[in-house]
Every structure is written in C-alpha cells, then in structure tokens.
Amino acid sequence: MNKIKVISLVFLVVIGATIFGCQAKAEDPYHKVSLDGSTSMEKLMNALREGVSEEYPSLQLEPQFTGSSSGIEAVLQHRADIGNSSRALKASEKKKGLVENIVAIDAIAVITSKDNPVNNLTRQQLIDIYKGKIRNWQEVGGNNQPIVVIGREAGSGTRVAFEELLKIEEQCQYANEYNETGPVMAKVGSISGAIGYVSLDVLDESVKALSIDNVEVNQESIQSGKYLLQRPFVMATYGPIEKQRKEVQDVFYYLQSPKGQKIIQSVGLMSPQ
Known about the structure:
Elements: H1 2-27, E1 32-37, H2 42-55, E2 60-64, H3 68-76, E3 82-85, H4 91-95, E4 98-99, E5 102-112, E6 120-121, H5 123-130, E7 148-152, H6 157-166, E8 176-178, H7 181-190, E9 194-199, E10 208-209, E11 211-212, H8 219-224, E12 230-238, H9 246-256, H10 258-266
Parallel strand pairs: 1-2, 1-3, 6-11, 7-8, 7-9
Antiparallel strand pairs: 3-12, 4-12, 5-9, 5-10, 5-12
Helix pairs in contact: 2-10, 9-10
C-alpha cells in the first residue's frame, strides 16, 4: 500500500512539474520581445533594453545583431518580432507585409586614422576613392600613401545606405569588408592609410571623422540637413504597430515617450519627430 502511495505521489509530482513547465514555456514568449538586425543599432538597442526593463519590469527585450538584411528576413519568417534596419526598407520588402517604423535618424561618419592630415573630402572625392579612381592620399592633399578602402559586408544596412546616398551601388572597390562595425573601427584606427564608414553613434576617439564638402558630422548638421550622409534607423514589423501583440506595442510606445526620446538623444541620434 505504501509503495502504491509513493509511486502515486511521484507520478503526480512528475505530471505537475511537466504541466507547470509546459505552461511556463507557453507563457514566456508573451513577456519577451525578440529583435534582430543592424549591428549599427546595437548601442541604441542596449540602451532601449535597459529603459524598457525599468518602465516594464516584466517585459524583456532580446536583441540580436546579425545585420539589417538578416533582421528583416527574420521578421518575414516570423523568427523575430522586430527587424532592426539601418537603411530604409525596399519596396519589395514592403510588398511582403513589412512596415517601416522610423525611430531615429543617424549619420554615417567617414573615418580615417587620427594621424591622417586630411580633414575634409568633397562628395566627388569620396566617390572616386570608393570607386578606385583615387588611390593615393596625395591626390586629395594628404601624404604620399596608398588609400586602403574599408567597408561593410554586402548585407549591411550601413553599406547599402552609404552606397545609395553616393549613388555608387555595386561600384565600390573594397580592400577589406567586415561583418560588424567594431572591426571597421579597429582596422581604420590601426592603419594610417585606411578610410572607412561607421554609424555616428559608435564614433569614438580611436579614429577621426572627416568633413564632407566642409560640413562636419554632428547633430546640428544632421538636423539642418546640411550633412550629406544621413539615413533612418528602422524597427520593422510584420504589419502595423497597432496589429502587434501588446508587448511589442509597449516597446514603440516607450520609444515615443519623453523617456524614450531621451534615450535616442543620449546615444547621439536624432528623433524623427
């Protein structure tokens, strides 16, 4: 009899644990929001995650940084709630049901090593450098030194935006291509003849940002529209925001709030509002 009771008790414990575990697994996703995409948006996403956790303690953001095109594809395949893109959505992506939610305006900074004497390039000089027509810094007023052209990988939103803004799609001659922003910064900072491009919000003192057509890259020049290389930061959803589940809507409501706007500004971005 005692054996029967023990077996019955163990059985009930196992069944109870299984049911509880299944319920927990079923409920967990409804307190999490998955984001995938642009590596250039990592600084913004990490700050957003902290802000959201304070405002909504039960809501957890789970960002991944695999590149803009990868993030967009993740939303289309319903593997992510939000696709972070550092470029505008293509017409073909919108036709598939994606909605372009612009949350911030970013600038693309053109960078060199700090010891490079060149401080400014014209738009045409920048184009000619990336197309391989200008190959030595001496041709733009610098030292007699080969130019090492650094860029992002083909799926990068930063690369797409950079090439589209300069109208040089599929014409660039890169010496090196990198999948993330960090290696671009490191490579340019360590090679005196290198040139590259990164999001303004990740710029630090390890490199130097060049002026374009004598316009420095800063919030004032972005807001006025004088700086040439600026692009949207997009948090794409499958369908409009109001059709998303509550937790996803809360993320966007928070971004639109004064606290959310403060986060956008704190990481060096401009609000589209």
